[in-house]
Amino acid sequence: MMVNRGLSATVLLAALLTVLLQTNDVHSVVGGHTTLPGEAPYIVSIRSVSGSSHLCAGVLIKTNWVLTTARCTGDLTQADLVVLAGSQRLLTNKKPLPISTIVRHPSYSGTTGAHNLALLQLVAPITVSSRLGTIELNDAAVVTGAVTAFYGWGALRYGTTSYSNELQTLYQRALSATDCRTRLTSLVEGDICAIIQPGQAACTRDEGGPLVLQGTKKLMGVFSYGTQCSGVVPDVFVDVQSHSAWIAQTAV
Predict the structure, then answer these.
(1) Which of the four pLDDT bands, split at 50, 70 and 90, describes residue 8?
(2) Per its UniProt record, what PANTHER family does this chain match (predicted)?
(3) What would the mean pLDDT of 185-201 be, rounded to a whole number?
């Protein structure tokens, strides 16, 4: 098809975003689609040493530090967990990366979910490659309407124990904390939201997965919780920018 050379870059971008936001293949990360190879080399799977199943996700923010949620780590110690990285397929054989330290946010509340963050320090740094790398943290306030991409291996639908072997992508639009509270009054300080439409949402075992701002490709947040994987109520993420001081002081 011939494209009119006079078509502006703005129109082309708008058309692309329309296609991305209307993607509706039914996979895990409910209503998402299979992630392109190498698109999210910073996502990792966190698992227990004693079991082989995926517990939650995390994000490589440095070659030896993984950001995830405090709820994901629970009362476990570094000896109880390992990180698997370098593949977008959960069942692909990968060498487990041992953890030397778990640091939970000092103000984390298991009751309210406030400051639901934890940092995992790896025993040895990763070797960066086309399939394995880190992501830069967002340093600006969240703007309502910003196009984001969420990545995860979570449940295919609410109430199931079936998860996706292939990493999934879900395009959503961000909501600032102020705008999110008009839909979700229980939102706590330090959280943000994202939503697209009913039937498209993060789900079980997606916790800790990255929400990435599409314009800058920076990490905006990690998935904290949702409402029955419905997409009717916004998904809630821990805002990276509002926790940047703690992250910088800890992940050194």
Answers:
(1) very low
(2) TRYPTASE-RELATED
(3) 93
- As a three-state string, the secondary structure of the chain is CCCCCCCCHHHHHHHHHHHHHCCCCCCHHHHCEECCCCCCCCEEEEEECCCCCEEEEEEEEECCEEEECHHHHCCCCCCCEEEECCCCECCCCCCCEEEEEEEECCCCCCCCCCCCCEEEEECCCCCCECCECCCCECCCCCCCCCEEEEEECCECCCCCCCECCECEEEEEEEECHHHHCCCCCCCCCCEEEEECECCECCCCCCCCCEEEECCCCEEEEEEEECCCCCCCCCEEEEECHHHHHHHHHHCC
Q: What pairs with residue 191 in β-bridges?
A: 238
What are the φ/ψ torsions at residue 208 (nearest 5 degrees)? 90, -10
87 belongs to a structural domain: yes
Domain holding 189, by residue range, is 135-241
Cβ neighbourhood burial of 74 (10 Å; 0-12, 13-18, 19+) = middle
pLDDT of residue 161: 66
CA dist., res. 85 & res. 56, Å (int): 13
93: pLDDT confidence band, cut at 50, 70 and 90? low
**Domain CATH code at residue 139:** 2.40.10.10
Average pLDDT of every residue of the chain = 86
Count structural domains, the chain. 2
